[in-house]
Amino acid sequence: MKLWKIVTLSLVTAILTIVTACSGSSNNGAKPVNQAGNVSKDNQQQPASSEENIELTFANWISTEDATKDAYNQLVEGFENAHPNIKIKSLGIPFNEYKDQVLIASTGGNTPDVLMANQSFTPAFGNANIVQPLETILGGDIIDDILPSSKAGVTFNGKVIAMPWAPHPNALFWNKTLFAKAGLDPNAPPKTWDELLKYAEAVAALKQDDKGNPIYGIGEANKTGAYTGQMLLRITLSHGGKFVDDQGKLIVNQGSALVESLQYLRDIANKNVAPVGAEIKDLRAMFGTGSLGMLVNGDFGRNTFRTTSGKGEVFDKEWGVTTVPVGATGRSETVFTEHQLLISSSTKHAEAAAEFVKYLVSKDAMVLYHKLNGVMSSRASVASLPELNEDDYAKVFNEQMKTASPFPTGNPAFEQAMKETSNLTVLATTTSEDIPAIIAKILPKLQELYAAK
Amino acid sequence: MSIKWSRTLKNQAFGMLLVAPATLLLSVTILIPLARSISTSFRGASLLSAEQPFIGLANYKALLSGQEFYHALSITLRYVACTVGIEIVLGLVSALLLNSRIRFRAFFRSILLIPWAIPTLVAALVFLLIYQADYGVLNGLLIQSGLTEKKLNVLNDLNLALYGIMGVAIWRQTPLAAVMTLAGLQGVPRDWYEAATIDGASKLKTFLYITLPALKPVLANVTLLMVVANFQMFTLFYALTGGGPADATQSLAIYTYETAFQAYDLGKGSAIGVIWMLLLLLIAVPLNRVAHRSMS
Amino acid sequence: MKGVYRLPTVRRHLLNRSNIGVYVLLAVILSLFLFPVYWLVSVSLQTNDDLFQFPPQWVPFKLTMQSYKGVLLSANFLTFYKNTAIVAAGSTALSIAVSILAGYGLSRFRFRGSHLLLVFFLSSQMFPAVTLLIGLYTLYSKLHLLNTLLALMLAATTTALPFSIMMMKTFMDGIAGELEEAAEVDGATRLKALIHIVLPLTKPGIMAVTIYCFLVAWDDFLFGMTLVRDLNMRTLSPGLSLTFLGELSTNWSGAAAAAVTATAPLLVLFLFLQRYMVEGLTAGGVKE
Q1: Residue B7 distance to chain A (closest CA, Å)
Q2: Where exactly are the transmembrane stretches of this chain (chain C) (predicted)?
Q3: Residue contact B30–C124, C-beta within 8 A
Q4: Same domain membership, residue A299 and residue A221
């Protein structure tokens, strides 16, 4: 008898939980797809001619992150006040799932009207044919105002398919406290690549702090992963390398650039000047806790270090930031990542979408965004505004942007190729294999991958 | 006669009715997806486009002519062989110890099983802490005991990473192997041992000629269970190394997952999965037979 | 379990020489297996500041519940918890109901294709989950099941079902059929015989299947990672991986506390019911 009850109970539980799960899912589940779906249905009911009330879906990740949520709300509020007939509906997707979500929703016919992207998402969206060229719709004034390096990164087959919004060039952060301890001038960062190495070795000679924590001179990402590959590209630039040739083939191995870059990575690893097996998030944490003398990182570094150090703004005094030291090319070579804005090719409200994009990259919006989050602008006229150069931090990054190169993201296999590229770094830092042999083993695979699609 | 016959028919129908829910459930969640995967493996399917043109054996040809598949296969086979081998031996030793005349056997058995109740992902997390190069407890142990001078970076070392993953699998799965083996040991009839004692057989001989043969079906079963579980292992690889460093731990599971869900190439991903499945069946079917035949 | 050799309880000579060796070896093995658990708990009870030092402290000197507070106050974590509980409970209940029926059917009736069915059930656990996933993904996407807990429930049920059915069948094989036949003569239907006579005798089997299914559902990572995308729909393992694991380099203690919290209910359940689990494994796994 009792067991009969157990069975009945378990059956009832099964049915109940399934019902709950189903109803739960219709409330919360499949949110992005559903929202997008509803909106496009609404759109169909309202022909584009009726300018009365337009609702635009804006796929983005900044509304999902605590650090940027506030800025997002103020930006949208600003736009809606200026355009009372247009409402922005946020489609917030966490960064880690962003690309997949947008692609899945789009292949299902539910592309959001306006999409946020970064330099590696944009080629995927372009390749899936879900976005439209922007020259006509945004107007020549804005297109011509885009910084040349940014423009190169969003031009596919001669067409600009994304509006660069906020660039994030990588510059050199150094820890003043560690520099002083190592007998270096805390206010004189390295100016050349040779100085960089010398200073890094000096800091690493401190070996460890009072608690036994190891101290390293510099951090370079060297764990398998796309980011590590991208950082290797950055280092090859300083050694006179070039990413792709005129035919769009991935070369990297310009002259001795790749050999020298890998030798640099191997040396700092072998001499314990840099940690091995490190991801960028490890390195950011280490810089924040005072275990790293130097780190090349983007402009969001300040916020990250404030958090990881646990000291907040007080920690700002312990470090400085400057342009990346000059290497073989005689200029400060670095790379930048970038937030970009795209417009769906299937939107019913192309004009309204363009208005929104124009607003987001406008002077007013950028000054606001900069004040709240310290971001910069990819537009020459806006980047040079005094409001965006109010302190040394902003100045350094605006300066760095002038010599920063975009990643060769024009190929949809870019991210995969970068993961493969990271194997060069990993093999150089964890084995003693001959470096040209490592290159001979990995580079052809890399080029095949990058050329394939 | 006719009454008897209809009774049999009724029973048959009832039997079928009883297995219907299970059959339906497994069909929907295994047979249909399986059929889909197989059909996808002959198509140029991508997560990025709605069209899936039939391309014949192209996916298979691409796989078998490249090196990556063989690399992933060899990693997987090495991982499975070592992990399962050690688990069986360690499980047998633990079971023999637990089966000897000791107190608190139930208590020891309970606490030994604890690692098995820990979710695989949590196990991975525990060992990420243990293996961590700068502050990890493994390096603490190795350096304090003077076994090594330099800190090891287990999961970032081309030669050590795979062993690092094996360690976690062995830690989590051996207890189950031990407890199952123990159950098998307790099922060996006592008079077999008594006969051996009368014959004056040594302990080793008793073990080799009585215990081990009696355990054969149990061990075959444990092996089968562990082979299937580890051949499929995804969580540990994904969470501990993600296939790195430099593809040193790129197992079939990771390779399939990356191809299908990160490079969006569902067709090729399915093809890897199909070949992999055939291999698994090739290994599992004979093991299954041993386990069954010896039992009856 | 006929003819099983049960060791007589030996109280004399408890600590004779050969036994000391056994105890020592056993102690070594057990401490090897338990140390990682100790370490996890120990890390979760310290501040990150105390953790970042070398050599590590084998016995922590300052204990704090700070990280547990953080975990239990995190809305995300509680959502993961709730989702996992729903998925595990639902799939366990479903597995029990289905495997009792199927186990009984396979144990008592021979019908056309019943042997083939047995082979299908047995071999279905051998299909690599990642392979099935590709098919499942497109299937669920068509059925609009992606991003629902029901999808995870079904997936977990399928993972656990083959072994559960075998366990149930073996248990029922061990129960003599005469009892039911007697009941049938008394006019009871087959179903009634199953419920009133067979089920009470298979209680250990049902318990074993319960724990097994619960463990399997709780352990799921792959399905939870791929079939669900929304943060609101995440279960514990993928949730931990996406949040705490990503931040592991900065927040060890938090990650450890989350891991302990995620494991605790399972461990409690397991320690109380593992007697049945062992019986079930012995029956289902060994004598199938």
Answers
A1: 26
A2: 20-41, 85-104, 116-139, 145-165, 197-218, 252-273
A3: yes
A4: yes
- Give the distance from CA A354 to its chain's centroid: 23
Q: Which residue of B has its CA nearest to A420?
A: B246
CA distance C105 to chain A (A): 16
Say whether both A218 and A329 belong to one domain. yes
Mind giving me the DSSP string for B79-137? Answer: HHHHHHHHHHHHHHHHHHHHHSS-S-HHHHHHHHHGGGGS-HHHHHHHHHHHH-TTT-H
Contact C25 B100 (CB under 8 A): no
Q: Which of the four CATH numbers 1.10.3720.10, 1.25.60.10, 2.60.40.10, 1.10.287.70 does domain B58-293 have?
A: 1.10.3720.10
The shortest CB-CB distance from B133 to any of A277, A416, A426 is to A277
pLDDT score of A146:
94
CB pairs under 8 A between A and B: 60
Confirm whether A4 is domain-assigned: no
Q: Which residues of A touch C53 (CB under 8 A)?
A: 211-213
- Statement to judge: residues A328 and A343 lie in one domain: no
Domain boundaries along the sequence of chain B: 1-40, 58-293
Q: What is the pLDDT of residues C204-233, one digit of tens each?
A: 889 888 988 999 999 999 999 888 877 788
- Residue C57 located in a structural domain: no
What is the number of other CB atoms lying within 10 angstroms of the CB of residue C100? 30
Number of compact structural domains in chain C:
1
Q: Check whether residue A305 and residue A415 sit in a common domain.
A: yes
pLDDT at residue A108 in the model: 63
Paired sense of beta strands A114-118 and A216-219, if any: unpaired
Q: At residue A301, does pLDDT exceed 50?
A: yes
Cis peptide before B115 (omega within 30 of 0): no
Judged by CB atoms closer than 8 Å, whether chains meet at C86 and A14 is answered as: no
CB contact under 8 A, B273 and C134: yes
Residues 6+ apart with CB under 8 A from C38: none
> Are A275 and B247 within 8 A, CB to CB?
no
Q: Which domain holds residue C225?
A: 75-286
Q: Which two tokens stand for residue C258?
A: 């989350």
Q: How many residues does chain A have?
A: 453
Domain with residue C132: its CATH number is: 1.10.3720.10
Distance from CA of C224 to the nearest CA of B (A): 11
Across the range C76-84, mean pLDDT stands at 92
**Counted domains in chain A:** 2
Neighbours of chain B (3+ CB pairs under 8 A): A, C
Instruction: Please indicate whether, in this complex, the C-beta atoms of C89 and A212 are within 8 angstroms of each other.
Output: no
Domain that holds residue A371: 34-44+54-169+337-400
Task: Test A29 with C93 for CB contact under 8 angstroms.
Answer: no
Same-domain status, A249 and A311: yes
Q: Does the residue A17 lie in any domain?
A: no
Question: Residue B144 is encoded by which pair of tokens?
Answer: 């304090």
Q: Which of A379, A400, A421 is the last residue of a domain?
A: A400
Mean pLDDT across C29-56: 88
Shortest distance between the Cα of C35 and any Cα of chain B, in A, equals: 10
Same domain membership, residue A262 and residue A114:
no
Chain B residue numbers touching A225 (CB-CB < 8 A): 242, 244
Confirm whether A157 is domain-assigned: yes
Distances (CA, A) of A242 to A249, A333, B266: 11, 11, 33
Nearest to A169 by CA among A329, A1, A322: A322
Which CATH number is A394's domain given?
Answer: 3.40.190.10
Answer yes or no: do A137 and A191 share one domain.
no
Nearest CB partner across the interface for A213, out of C52, C153, C200: C52
Can you tell me whether residue A244 is helix, strand or coil?
strand
What is B243-292 written as a DSSP string? Answer: T-STTTT--HHHHHHIIIIIS-BHHHHHHHHHHHHHHHHHHHHHHHHHHH
Model confidence pLDDT, tens digit, residues C141-164: 788 888 899 999 999 998 899 888
Residues A101 and A200 in one domain: no
